[in-house]
Fold:
Amino acid sequence: MRALRRFFSRLISWATAARDEKRLSLRGASRVTAGAGSLPRRVLVVLQIALSLALLSVPGLLTSALHALETQDFGFKQDRLVVARIIPKLAGYQPSQLSQLYRRIHDAIANTPAVSSVALCLYSPPGGGWGSSVWVDGRPAPGLRDDNSRQWDRVTPGYFEVIGTPIVEGRGISEEDTAASRRVAVVNEAFARKFFGNENPIGRHFGRNPETSREFEVVGLAKDARYLANQIDRPVGPLFFLPEAQADYTKSAGSLFLHDIVISAKPGVNLSAPEARHAMASVDPGMPIIAI
Structure:
């Protein structure tokens, strides 16, 4: 940056000198010939130097930007993770069959020698999330200009441990979160700041419409993680997570179909794509795997 400032300072000095020379050249015919020849050359040299410096500075700026992205704390681990994306709906599965399917997929992949742990989710970072409005129990209803829409994800037990997102307070989604137990949610730090301010979010309630503001009880606070790759230059937004086991399978909503299988490999071991495909084939050879 200092080099750029020095260059532009010199550039201004050269431009000023060129302007003064042009003024002096108008005072006598003997200097018109010299001024007419040197002024364009000087301007051309200045422009060439400016263009060269700009071209040289661009790679440096790009390198700095890429370094900042690579060293950024994304809120999840980036090593030893494999994500397999499936589409159960294309394989003909109905909502009532999904919970059992997810358990079979989990067990088949978890028994692969190279695998340390596995979890399924609607979206894994940085893949996005589903949008939803939020109404907090005990808080005034949002006004017409208030933005209460937030992203949410549905995950299986152990998801936060697999993805490497720390639980700051409370707990993550676990096996105790069943269809018969109280409906719970884990929220990220941005969600807690937005809707609870400085208050402890654990034990608070919120819902997805005004009539059910006590739909979910917050049982965990997760560290912020980037789930929207197209907003990498913005602060992480509010996000909440729901247990897969507490989904309402009487409804054929798209959010019931989990797409991502997040697999954590054992240290020093590489999990190959054929190994992941083989494990999936043992569950259902017809399951579409669109990416690993």
Observations:
- The longest strand covers residues 115-121.
